[in-house]
Amino acid sequence: MTGIEVSSAGLDERRRRLLFRSWHRGIREMDLVLGRFAESQIGALTDAEIDEYENWLEVPDQQIFAWVNGSQAVPAAIDTALFRRLRAFHFSQSHG
Q1: What's the Cα-to-Cα distance from 78 to each of 41, 55, 71, 91, 94, rounded to whole Å?
Q2: What span, in angstroms and rounded, lies between the C-alpha atoms of 25 and 60?
Q3: Tens-digit pLDDT profile for residues 28-41
Q4: Span 18-64, pLDDT tens digits
Q5: How many other CB atoms are found less than 10 A from the CB of residue 34?
Q6: How confident is the model at residue 93 (pLDDT cuts 50, 70, 90)?
Q7: Which of 95, 96, 94 is nearest to 32 (CA)?
Q8: How many Cβ atoms are within 10 Å of 45's Cβ, its own excluded?
Q9: Contacts (Cβ under 8 Å, ≥6 apart) of 71
């Protein structure tokens, strides 16, 4: 997978921007983690979830990756239902 595979045409501007940012992180591993998740989920996220997701994009890639792959404990403020969905999605994509 090399990038955005779904059309962003039906998305509002904010979601299109977040989808693009998800695929252009800085390290390829995070492009795949966040890009795939965003492709799958961005259209269905609530406004509150979009706010949360947008905040994740401000966290350094290495830190998010450590939380997602389980090499570091996820802080309580990050360990939300949405973050657990991201982790479950990541593991279903990479192990299944």
Answers
A1: 18, 10, 15, 18, 22
A2: 9
A3: 999 999 999 999 99
A4: 999 999 998 999 999 999 999 999 999 999 999 999 999 999 999 99
A5: 26
A6: confident
A7: 94
A8: 17
A9: none
Task: Say what the pLDDT of residue 94 is.
Answer: 72
Cα four-point dihedral sign 40, 28, 74, 60: negative
Tokens matching residue 57: 């994009």
Cβ–Cβ under 8 Å, residues 70 and 90? no
In this structure, the number of other CB atoms found within 10 A of the CB of residue 48 comes to 10
Q: Token match 């792959």: residue?
A: 69
Q: Mean pLDDT in the chain?
A: 89
Segments in the chain forming alpha helices (H): 13-23, 28-41, 47-56, 61-69, 81-94
Residue 68: count other Cβ atoms within 10 Å of its Cβ: 23
**Vertex 92 angle, CA 41 and 42, to 5°:** 5
For residues 35 and 8, the answer to whether their CB atoms sit within 8 Å is no
